Structure formats: C-alpha cells, structure tokens
C-alpha cells in the first residue's frame, strides 16, 4: 500500500473484470484516482461516490 502524507481515506472499489474488491488510501480532497486491480491488473479510473467508502470504478 502506498504511503499518503496527511489525512487520507480508504477508497474501496470493485474490479469490473474479475469482481475483486480493491482498497486504496486516497488523500483527503482527491475525488478521482487511477488504480490497478490487485488480482487481474486491469487499470481503472476510480471516482468518489455519494457513499463515503465505496467508490465507482470504470476500466480505463
Ligand atoms: Zn480485477
């Protein structure tokens, strides 16, 4: 897991290909990140949703 300086939140997102739940630390104030699925490696654009923890993911 990568180090994030300062306050951070955990973003959970579901891989659109294999369905695995991924988690990433995101600095507070960021609303979109790029991440790779830990299981299949597919790259996703992950964006904040109205729910605090579960983020939206789309293959990118
Ligand atoms: Zn995957």
Which range does the strand content fall in?
over 45%
Number of strands: 5
**Roughly what percent helix?**
under 10%
Rounded mean pLDDT score = 93
Overall, the morphology is globular
The major sheet is characterized as: 3 strands, antiparallel
Q: Report the structural category.
A: mainly beta
* First-to-last CA distance: 21 Å
Integer-rounded radius of gyration: 11 Å
Provide the number of structural domains: 1
Q: Which strands sit side by side, in order, in the main sheet?
A: 3-4-5
Total helical elements: 0
- Helix and strand element order: EEEEE
Low-confidence stretches: none
Ions, cofactors and other ligands present here are: zinc ion
Fold topology:
Elements: E1 8-14, E2 21-27, E3 32-36, E4 43-47, E5 56-59
Antiparallel strand pairs: 1-2, 3-4, 4-5
The chain binds zinc ion.
Residues 15, 17-18, 20, 37, 39-40, 42 line the site of zinc ion.
